[in-house]
């Protein structure tokens, strides 16, 4: 029976309305606008694949029709600061299903008035009194928080990740295709800021700039709050104010001299807000998910900061609406999560963060079985691959699989060993493999082509395992079918 | 009196025709097509500046009207493999003048049949018999060539540079603006290849890939010859064939086991041509000048390979038609030269070269006097800055001024010390300075903006002094005038 999720049902519009009526007002609003934006449900369901028809046929779409799911972000549905193959799935979906997932920024407490107040989901996640936390563990560190005394999980990993989603039929060795159907900002729930969404940019101690500051006081951490138009009318963000981080005492009494633990509430009585910064500067928005990926198999709890073969915190701003990601599946069900949503970011994410801004995405998840990959663009894929309408984007890291390569202390030592040079080498190797394996080129052909037609860029230099991406235009191969 | 170079002259068309008739057939063809492409001389003369009207007014256009000049590439007008403040100018121009300059690729002898034969300019430059060379010195090394025995100049620097052009009024501390009005491929002069132009890509020992090869024989150098449509009808290149470098004996009897000296003629009897490589792959062309810049002041003879504050071998494919470059002037007259012309290149120039292809460019050269720079986008500029219609592009290098920073052995040690990480740091510092100086931002504003709206990419990792560029969109500041 159609539950408002089968566009071929003659009663679809009615059933759809019933489904929408069952949701709360905010989510209802989102769903309506999302369906308008994608040209209605039928268009969304029938959206053409970015990959070739032959490749689409290799997808394990399962016996039934796609189903639609919704996963809100609440204290119960998020894991904060880590990936884990041990996590209980929040949702189980079939290959080909659609799912809307809410992502909350882990920087919302930089300005709780604008980014948390009045928002039940955000309030449940960020709840923190002297007696309790909505989400206690934040990071892959010890739960007792006695190692560095920062708090449970020690902030070894910072991102609020919604999920995981278990995809039926996904097994190690398969590939999960994630089509990003829609991305929307999460409007401020504070009536004083109706129609607006907000994000925070932290120029923090882990930024590339931190030891290079030229003006006093040195060093310093600076938070800049940005405003985004939640109605979608304007495609640019603008700064509202900034402030320098001062020691903040969390509700458990721990003093955070620097930004060393996620979700610490900033007491705005203790900071100096400078309004009018970046006056009249308009930042083009590039809404995307900094974190998107699957559970790694190498460890039970994995810091959410360094990206790897499983995706994770890749921080490539191209992973937005209309893009498709492909991830190697390491554990049964894949265990897909998203987080670290960004309104905009530049290649390098230089100062440590983007415009960190809660977003809601709609995705289609498709399993490609291992045995069907030969001869497709996914053959031998062992890293996260991005496809847009015009490009293939290969992702290199300082260490392709740091969890394996750096041994038992990988999650500590990765922060000491990264370089852009290493990431470039990895991106080169992966692009060569892509061209030789999926385009049938010789090594000599692939290397020449990389020098004359592939662009290498700096994805990020702030996530432990640094990233370089390599972009090749699809139209290079357009003549091959002539 | 108008010599065919003053479009305001009532007899301009007639005088112009006389000028064209005086030139040989090939150059005549080029000039005609260039003038058609730019919408006629008047349009070229009246082309609007990419910089603001206020900035244009700071230009020292001099007392007279702009004049048009033509500088062909011949054995007399090129310097091969080095920059030198001691070089006699080949041309003296006024600020605001237009000049068409021919650039010859230093890889033409990889396939002399296609890239040299029948072309008087190229033949004069490449002349090399057992008794003489058209251009003896190739590189900044010793003229006697006894250091490594490779040949005069030792190949410490490889690019055929046409020039220098002395710009009247240009003094140290001023800025030279170079507007790229037009860029054309140089057609093959061999009747067997009419209507086509050709380029060579060398995957060479200095490439990023060289020690990373996975197929045998290892190591190896590979030349791929590409064909470009010289008529401008097609915007893509395609491979013709490739071959592996074999030891080549030059006319003086020196054996070159690797590509260690520029312009060594390849004896095609000694190599195996593989036709049909990269079949049906179409490489979008991005015609540009890998080398463009001024004479540095720090040394008398400077290797043409490592780029620096003076520009030189920057290898940024964005330096093509419609772009404008700004260079700090280090010596009187600036001494502008071009070379290393490319039909296409990707960010990183991974294997060591681009599609090395002779091109002819038309430029307008404008001097901006030091005392007029305050308050403009050129204030305190001490590195090569690129402007396109939509973007400012800042160029970082592993060493901003390696000639000064690395001391007396700079020209050797630069090849041992570069990294992408260092180049990224330099690009960050320069973009910060650009935003603080020319946009009036605080350091905190600049750093936040760099993280959310500036894209850092890998320019090249094969030129000794590696490069990272930083791109910022102009429209960020469009609101500032509202």
Can you offer a commentary on this structure?
2 copies of one chain form a homodimer. By secondary structure, chain A is an alpha+beta fold. Chain A is 18% helix and 28% strand. Chain A has 10 helices and 25 strands. Chain A has helices at 12-22, 25-37, 41-45, 53-57, 112-115, 120-126, 402-405, 410-417, 420-438, 443-453, and strands spanning 68-71, 78-80, 82-83, 91-93, 98-103, 160-167, 175-185, 196-203, 222-229, 236-244, 248-249, 255-256, 274-275, 283-284, 288-293, 302-303, 311-313, 324-328, 334-344, 355-356, 359-368, 385-387, 391-397, 454-460, 467-473. A 9-stranded mixed beta sheet of chain A has the order 1-5-21-7-18-22-23-25-24. In chain A, strands 2, 4, 6, 15, 17, 19 and 20 form a 7-stranded mixed beta sheet that branches. In chain A, a hairpin with a 5-residue loop joins strand 11 and strand 12. The N and C termini of chain A lie far apart (46 Å). Residues 19-50 of chain A have low confidence and may be disordered.
Span between N and C termini of chain A? 46 Å
By DSSP, the count of extended strands of chain A is 25
Question: What proportion of the residues of chain A is helical, as a percent range?
Answer: 10-25%
Assembly type of the chains comes to: homodimer
Summarize the structure.
Helix content of chain A is 18%, strand content 28%. Chain A contains ten helices and 25 strands. The first copy, chain A, is globular, with a radius of gyration of 22 Å.
């Amino acid at each position: 029976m159609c539950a408002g999720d089968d566009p071929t049902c003659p009663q679809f519009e009615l059933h759809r309305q019933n489904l929408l009526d069952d949701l709360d007002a905010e989510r209802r609003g989102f769903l309506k606008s999302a369906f308008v934006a994608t040209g209605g449900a039928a268009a969304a369901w029938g959206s053409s694949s970015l990959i070739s028809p032959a490749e689409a046929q290799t997808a394990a779409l399962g016996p039934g029709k796609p189903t639609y799911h919704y996963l809100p972000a609440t204290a119960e549905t998020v894991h904060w600061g880590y990936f884990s193959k041990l996590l209980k799935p929040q949702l189980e979906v079939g290959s080909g299903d659609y799912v809307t997932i809410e992502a909350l920024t882990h920087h919302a407490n930089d300005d709780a008035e604008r980014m948390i107040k009045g928002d039940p989901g955000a309030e449940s996640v960020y709840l923190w009194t002297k007696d309790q936390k909505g989400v206690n563990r934040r990071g892959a560190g010890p739960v007792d928080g006695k190692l560095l005394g920062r708090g449970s999980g020690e902030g070894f990993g910072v991102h609020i990740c919604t999920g995981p989603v278990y995809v039926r039929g996904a097994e190690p060795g398969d590939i999960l295709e994630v089509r990003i159907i829609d991305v929307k900002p999460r409007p401020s729930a504070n009536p004083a800021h109706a129609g607006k969404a907000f994000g925070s940019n932290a120029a923090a101690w882990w930024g590339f700039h931190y030891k290079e500051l030229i003006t006093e006081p040195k060093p310093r951490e600076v938070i800049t709050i940005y405003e985004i138009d939640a109605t979608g009318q304007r495609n640019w963000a603008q700064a509202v104010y900034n402030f320098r981080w001062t020691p903040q005492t969390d509700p458990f009494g721990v003093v955070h001299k620097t930004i060393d633990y996620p979700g610490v509430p900033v007491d705005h009585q203790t900071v100096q807000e400078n309004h009018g910064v970046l006056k009249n500067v308009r930042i083009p928005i590039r809404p995307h998910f900094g974190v998107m990926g699957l559970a790694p198999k190498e460890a039970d709890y994995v810091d959410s900061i360094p990206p790897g073969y499983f995706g994770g915190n890749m921080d490539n701003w191209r992973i937005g609406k209309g893009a498709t990601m492909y991830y190697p599946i390491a554990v049964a069900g894949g265990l897909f999560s998203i987080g670290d949503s960004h309104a905009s970011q530049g290649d390098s994410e230089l100062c440590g963060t983007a415009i960190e801004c809660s977003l809601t995405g709609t995705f289609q998840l498709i399993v490609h079985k291992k045995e069907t990959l030969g001869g497709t663009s996914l053959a031998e894929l062992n890293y996260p691959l991005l496809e847009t309408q015009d490009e293939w984007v290969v992702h290199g890291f300082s260490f392709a699989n740091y969890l394996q390569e750096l041994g038992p202390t990988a999650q500590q030592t990765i922060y000491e060993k990264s370089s852009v040079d290493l990431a470039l080498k990895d991106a080169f190797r992966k692009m060569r493999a892509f061209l030789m394996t999926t385009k049938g080129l010789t090594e000599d052909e692939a290397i020449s082509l990389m020098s004359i037609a592939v662009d290498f860029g700096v994805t990020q230099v702030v996530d432990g395992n640094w990233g370089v991406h390599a972009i090749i235009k699809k139209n290079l191969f357009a003549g091959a079918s002539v």
